[in-house]
């Protein structure tokens, strides 16, 4: 054996590799199996070109544990290395790329999936690494290279028949878990599940039951099926994952089966998109639309990112627009730079193009579903809506496409595109400033009374009940000319759509003052009182919340501010023209009864909006009982 030093400057790299990457130790296996895959691919290419002669049909990569020896071996049947190549690639190339990686990593540990540490990641878990290799080239002999985690190494001849490479890790004392079968199998399933060559991890027992096929004499029972156990290779990967295949060759069932392979516990997806692009970047993948309805948070981070079928990460938030992280599936692209920091990624031109491409494909798919079968699309809307709205709010480009197929649902359960809806309300709901006023409820059950009051006026009421609807409304108002929204409780029904009609007040000035005073006392600090001449049949007292003030408060609360900093601003509108107001307040002599009636009418208004609680609610019930 010859001895040598890898490099003088690298004295420190081993402890750094061990220490800095400790939390992500497990990636060593992905890096080494990737190298084995690359070495196999290189040989396959040479053989195809006729430059490597021999039978290279067995491309299996073996992962082997030897507990007694304390080693984990990664064996490939790939291109192998000559002694010169070992010196060049392991002592120089691999080392300098590891050095580069460590330098970058020390500056910013957010490198995606920690790709690029390469061969030297072995030293995260091993005290000593032994490489036994033989080049595919005629006349090559085996070579053994040993390095014990310091800059010195040994190199010499080794016995070896087959071309290819064994990387033997002498697992260190504090990484003993990597000698456990379950641990290794788990990592192989995570990182290597879709690699293009078979990854064999020992053997497994397959059990089969064979029915008795012979004659059974009358009166005799058929013998139990025979149990047949066979030892077969434990190949842990699917070498030909669905996203690599041509969509024309696949059926719906294939896509569903692949979804189950990815998420065995998941509900079946609604539909999917097969991505496939060669220029100006390479990208393949399948994105599935899950049923989202309401569960906005739970579903994130289900897209897996691969690079040439090697798993990288399931945190793709810097690679795809945020709203797309609600989708499930796989993206595979060798063109995403994986050894740069996450903040750099978003500025990368390839990543920008990829983002744009995926967004466009998603919009196209939704658009075709909408056009092909509107009814089926409407049925899916409860699950799709959250996703589409999220996209419209957060991605300008998506908005432009989605505004054609986004739907608005009204309280009758009918669906409209934005354009259709504007057309529908044009006549009734255009205000004096020529704005189209969309009236909505955030809770059709709680706001039932108000919804009905608006509908009685001939208005249409939209159901915008999800958390995503508040920002969606804001976006629609910004984007769509002359469209504005008001919630049913933001004004009295006659004022939801402001028109220039002034009603005559049936009370004289003294009467108006008396009424205003009575209600100001009844309401106290609960809100401001306004006496207005409304329709005779409009309720005597109504409570409204200014749309703008309410939105401000909601926004502040979303930003985590104290809710009490912005008290609710309620306006108590008293209808001067409702006959009850006159009869119960003005025509009553007794001061105390008048005050009591004012309070009672105010409480009725509170009750209709579920604002009456605590002691006030009890007082109201007591009084109602007495009246009975
Ligand atoms: N199993 C192997 N068979 C043949 N050559 C190998 C094997 N493992 C490593 N090598 C050689 O060593 C070189 C350095 O490996 P290393 O993993 O450090 O970097 P890389 O694979 O080139 O790049 P990266 O890991 O960043 O993708 C490889 O380019 C290859 O030439």
TrEMBL record:
Keyword Chaperone: yes
InterPro entries documented for this protein: HATPase_C_sf, HSP90_C, Hsp90_fam, Hsp90_N, Ribosomal_Su5_D2-typ_SF
This protein's UniProt keywords: ATP-binding, Chaperone, Nucleotide-binding
Pfam families reported for this sequence: HATPase_c_3, HSP90
Alphabetical list of PANTHER family matching this protein: HEAT SHOCK PROTEIN 90 FAMILY MEMBER
Family of this protein: Belongs to the heat shock protein 90 family.
Protein name: Chaperone protein HtpG
Organism of this sequence: Neolewinella maritima
């Amino acid at each position: 054996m010859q001895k040598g030093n890898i490099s003088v400057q690298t004295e420190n790299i081993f402890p750094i590799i061990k220490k800095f990457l400790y939390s992500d130790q497990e990636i060593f296996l992905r890096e080494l199996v990737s190298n084995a895959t690359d070495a196999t691919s290189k040989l396959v290419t040479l053989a195809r070109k006729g430059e490597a002669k021999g039978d290279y049909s067995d491309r299996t990569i073996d992962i082997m544990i030897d507990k007694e020896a304390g080693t984990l071996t990664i064996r490939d049947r790939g291109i192998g290395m000559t002694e010169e190549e070992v010196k060049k690639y392991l002592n120089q190339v691999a080392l300098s790329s590891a050095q580069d990686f460590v330098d970058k990593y020390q500056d910013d540990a957010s490198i995606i999936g920690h790709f690029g540490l390469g061969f030297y990641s072995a030293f995260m878990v091993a005290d000593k690494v032994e490489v036994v290799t033989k080049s595919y080239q005629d006349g090559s002999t085996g070579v053994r290279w040993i390095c014990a985690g310091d800059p010195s190494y040994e190199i010499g001849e080794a016995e070896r028949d087959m071309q290819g490479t064994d990387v033997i890790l002498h697992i260190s004392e504090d990484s003993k878990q990597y000698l456990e079968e379950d641990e290794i199998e788990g990592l192989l399933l995570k990182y290597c599940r879709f690699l293009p060559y078979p990854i064999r991890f020992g053997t497994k027992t397959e059990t089969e039951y064979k029915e008795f096929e012979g004659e059974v004499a009358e009166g005799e029972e058929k013998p139990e099926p025979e149990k047949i156990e066979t030892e077969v290779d434990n190949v842990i990967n699917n070498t030909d994952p669905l996203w690599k295949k041509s969509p024309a060759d696949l059926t719906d069932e294939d896509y569903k089966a692949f979804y189950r392979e990815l998420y065995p516990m998941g509900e079946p997806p609604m539909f999917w998109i097969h991505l496939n692009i060669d220029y100006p970047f390479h990208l393949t993948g399948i994105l599935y639309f899950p049923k989202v309805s309401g569960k906005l948070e739970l579903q994130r981070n289900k897209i897996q990112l691969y690079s040439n079928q090697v798993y990288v990460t399931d945190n793709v938030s810097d690679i795809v627009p945020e709203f797309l992280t609600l989708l499930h599936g796989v993206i595979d692209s060798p063109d995403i730079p994986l050894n740069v920091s996450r903040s750099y990624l978003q500025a990368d031109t390839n990543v920008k193009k990829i983002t744009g491409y995926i967004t466009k494909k998603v919009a196209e798919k939704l658009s075709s579903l909408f056009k092909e079968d509107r009814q089926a699309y409407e049925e899916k809307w409860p699950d799709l809506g959250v996703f589409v709205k999220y996209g419209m709010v957060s991605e300008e480009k998506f908005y432009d496409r989605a505004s054609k197929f986004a739907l608005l649902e009204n309280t009758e359960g009918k669906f409209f595109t934005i354009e259709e809806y504007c057309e529908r309300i044009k006549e009734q709901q255009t205000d004096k400033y020529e704005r189209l006023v969309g009236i909505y409820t955030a809770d059709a059950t709680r706001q039932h009374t108000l919804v009905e009051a608006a509908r009685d006026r001939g208005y249409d009421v939209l159901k915008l009940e999800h958390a995503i609807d508040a920002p969606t409304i804001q976006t629609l108002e910004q984007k769509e000319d002359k469209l504005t929204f008001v919630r049913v409780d933001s004004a009295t029904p006659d004022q939801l759509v402001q028109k220039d009609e002034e009603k005559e007040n049936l009370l004289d000035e003294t009467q108006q003052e008396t009424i205003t005073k009575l209600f100001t006392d009844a309401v106290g600090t609960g809100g401001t009182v306004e006496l207005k001449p409304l329709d005779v049949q409009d309720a005597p007292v109504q409570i409204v919340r200014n749309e703008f003030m309410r939105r401000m408060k909601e926004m502040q609360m979303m930003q985590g501010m104290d809710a009490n900093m912005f008290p609710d601003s309620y306006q108590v509108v008293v209808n001067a023209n409702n006959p009850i107001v006159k009869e119960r307040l003005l025509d009553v002599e007794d001061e105390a009864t008048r005050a009591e009636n004012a309070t009672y009418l105010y409480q009725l208004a509170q009750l209709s909006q579920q604002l009456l609680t605590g002691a006030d609610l009890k007082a109201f019930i007591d009084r109602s009982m007495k009246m009975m």
